[in-house]
Specification:
It is a single chain. The termini are far apart. A hairpin with a 5-residue loop joins strand 2 and strand 3. The protein has a domain at 32-98: Trypsin Inhibitor V, subunit A (Trypsin Inhibitor V, Chain A, 2-Layer Sandwich). The chain is α+β, with helices and mostly antiparallel strands. The longest helix is centred in the N-terminal third of the chain and has 14 residues, at 2-15. The protein has helices spanning 2-15, 49-59, and strands spanning 63-67, 81-86, 92-97.
């Protein structure tokens, strides 16, 4: 009897599981697009307020996101965002829009 009851209880509990709502990405600012051309001057620099301000000015991006090795990130594309990839030494190794 217990052998029959346990699977039924497991099915009943699994049936109560609610679906997770997908996260809606923040909307990009209309008319603002990132341009990653000409950002070579940022390579080798460290994260700072000055670097962020210069990255925004050079790229036209509204948002700058620093990515560290192994960091989990969302994969949605944002035309107004600049991603600065940091190496294990904390220095910028590459810059990409999105």
């Amino acid at each position: 009897m217990i052998r029959l009851a346990l699977p039924l209880i497991a099915l009943a509990v699994a049936g109560c599981k609610s679906e997770a709502r997908p996260q809606v990405p923040a909307p990009a600012v209309p008319g603002v697009e990132c341009n990653s051309n000409g950002l070579e001057s940022l390579i080798g620099r460290t994260r700072s307020a000055e670097t962020t301000a210069e990255a925004k000015r050079l790229s036209g991006a509204n948002v700058v996101r620093y990515l560290t090795p192994g960091m989990m990130v969302t994969m949605e594309f944002r035309a107004d965002r600049l991603n600065l990839h940091l190496g294990t030494d904390g220095k910028i190794g590459s810059a990409r829009c999105g």
